[in-house]
Design a protein that fits this description.
It is found in: Cytoplasm. The chain has 12 helices and 29 strands. Helix 11 packs across helix 12. The structure holds adenosine-5'-triphosphate and magnesium ion. Adenosine-5'-triphosphate binds near residues 44, 230, 231 and 271.
Length: about 550
């Protein structure tokens, strides 16, 4: 990571500074704890940059820990994708990858400890009854009739649960805390349940699985985490986090701190909803370039640096807010404007014939970046037949239209000034060919007689250009907060993908997947990592050249 990525500050870093200054801690150890039940999204990137970024800046450690206590929803495919995405973002976890499931034996032991202390009991209320007994925010809960079982009986029943002698949903282990607590999470939360499911790490060894709140704090303590950073919805759970650690024999007391999660306009961030988009084929997989997933953004052409920059710009606070899509886009635009080589591609081609040009292609040397000579140049063939963008030609136009007009001149980027002499149309009135002449004295200089040619348009040789499928993306949803819609699927933007059959300059045949180019005047594009090949080029538009979002009124 470059030095220019200056160190951010936020309330969590201030807490860490204070803890180091007071000697409460001598080093910092954080963790990023995804549940492997989906692919990571841009919200996770915020948490990753925060946790791994802190470890980097304080010479501390950050663990990657899979919070894997829900075997039915989890999968090894997600484990692999998460590792990949964290690395791609530019971060390395400390030591081995951790799994909460590594601690199942220890967690079981702590559950026994709570039972022995009279702080946990096996309950047999049905899930419905349990809900009813729990009470409401304004009304205290009721004690389960099973709450006062003896320690011996609890141990015996918990053992049966563990041995597979109890059906799912018939019994569970609950912490005995306070059924009248104003914090619902403290009303005797379930800490173990029966699930006859094969786990991606532990196979069929277990048929009881610990709940998140019981597992998370203990995993943190076992790993020696100093600052356990999570999102605001876990604020109340902090009571339970501390209660568990206060009541078991463990010699580490991590502290939990909460920050507000990232919400982005015009997209959803819930893994359940993203999963639904994938399984119902509403998008083409988790890495569809329209998805807010790390793998989708990557495939679309976002760079790791642009995502880290975004996370830095949005900052870390406790205020809930929703970020505009334009702020994510300006990060990638800033990066690519600096770093993406230029190239030419025509997305919606119309043919131009240069009638006074004969013979072989002339190879023109064109700079790869207007202000970065160190990025070199490439050879672009200029030939008798070319393509330009349909929208770059008009039979008639006023002075504001600085492109090609019948009877007028325009400059072809990196090449000559041409003049449109006449056109040919098909029977439906569509222009099929624009016949032009070129001024062969205008390569890299203005016409000698002082004629002013204002417009510059891009072009590709028709003879040597290469056909390419070009995918243009729009926002995936039509409303700023699709998550709030009754049915988020109903607000999917039917025009979120437009496929163009374009032509690109020959040098792009060798474009590496995910490596961005600025297609002159059209935006930033990269070859698709899944579908593009030398035989059939496919490019994704990462982002346009200018912010078009801000102008769209709703
Ligand atoms: P979901 O509720 O959709 O399943 P999650 O938050 O439970 O998502 P996890 O895999 O548990 O997903 O998240 C791993 C870490 O990433 C957690 O610490 C979580 O707080 C953080 N995280 C998840 N979503 C966001 C977000 N939108 N902004 C910031 N951090 C997030
Ligand atoms: Mg979670």
């Amino acid at each position: 990571m470059s030095e220019s990525e200056a160190r951010p500050t936020n309330f969590i870093r201030q807490i860490i500074d204070a803890d180091l200054a007071s000697g409460k801690h001598t080093s910092v150890h954080t963790r990023f704890p995804p549940e492997p039940n989906g692919y990571l999204h841009i919200g996770h990137a915020k948490s990753i940059c925060l946790n791994f970024g802190i470890a980097q800046d304080y010479q501390g450690q950050c663990n990657l820990r899979f919070d894997d206590t829900n075997p039915e929803k989890e999968d090894i495919e997600y484990v692999e994708s998460i590792k990949n995405d964290v690395n791609w973002l530019g971060f390395e976890w400390s030591g081995e990858i951790c799994y909460s499931s590594n601690y199942f034996d220890k967690l079981y032991g702590f559950a026994i400890e709570l039972i022995n202390k009279g702080l946990a009991y096996v309950d047999e209320l049905s899930p419905e009854q349990m809900r009813e007994y729990r009470g409401t925010l304004t009304e205290a809960g009721k004690h389960s009739p099973y709450r006062d079982r003896s320690v011996e009986e609890n141990l015996e029943l918990f053992e049966k649960m563990k041995n597979g002698e109890v059906e799912e949903g018939k019994m569970c282990l609950r912490a005995k805390i306070d059924m009248s607590s104003p914090f619902m999470v403290m009303r005797d939360p379930v800490i173990y349940r029966v699930r006859f499911a094969t786990h991606h790490q532990t196979g069929d060894k277990w048929c009881i699985y610990p709940m998140y709140d019981f597992t998370h704090c203990i995993s943190d303590a076992l790993e020696g985490i100093t600052h356990s950073i999570c999102t605001l919805e876990f604020m109340d759970n902090r009571r339970l986090y501390d209660w568990v650690l206060d009541n078991i024999t463990i010699d580490c007391q991590p502290r939990q701190y909460e920050f507000s999660r990232l919400n982005l306009e015009y997209t959803v961030m819930s893994k359940r909803k993203l999963n639904q988009l994938v399984t119902e084929n509403l998008v083409n997989g988790w890495d569809d370039p329209r998805m807010p997933t790390i793998s989708g953004l990557r495939r679309r052409g976002f760079t790791p640096a642009s995502i880290r920059e975004f996370c830095k710009r949005i900052g870390v606070t406790k205020q809930d807010n929703t970020i505009e899509m334009s702020s994510l886009e300006s990060c990638i635009r800033d990066d690519l404007n600096e770093n993406a080589p230029r190239a030419m591609a025509v997305l919606d081609p119309v043919k131009v014939v240069i009638e006074n040009f004969d013979g072989d292609a002339e190879m023109l040397d064109v700079a790869n970046h207007p202000n970065k000579p160190e990025m070199g140049s490439r050879q672009v063939p200029f030939t008798r037949e070319l393509y330009i963008e349909c929208e770059d030609f008009r039979e008639e136009a006023n002075k504001k239209y600085k492109r090609l007009v019948l009877g007028k001149e325009v400059r072809l980027r990196g090449a000559y000034v041409i003049k449109a002499e006449r056109i040919e149309k098909d029977e439906d009135g569509n222009i099929t060919t624009i016949f032009c002449t070129y001024d062969n004295e205008t390569l890299g200089k203005n016409p000698a007689d002082g004629r002013k040619v204002k417009g510059v348009i891009h072009w590709v040789s028709a003879e040597q250009g290469v056909p390419a499928e070009i995918r243009l993306y729009d926002r995936l949803f039509t409303v700023p907060n699709p998550g709030a819609a009754d049915d988020f699927v109903s607000v999917i933007n039917p025009e979120s993908l437009t496929v163009m059959n374009g032509v690109v300059e020959p040098s792009l045949v060798n474009a590496e997947a995910e490596k961005a180019f600025q297609f002159e005047r059209m935006g930033y594009f990269c070859a698709d990592s899944k579908d593009s090949s030398k035989e059939k080029l496919v490019f994704n538009r990462t982002v346009g050249l200018r912010d078009t979002w801000a102008k769209i009124g709703d």
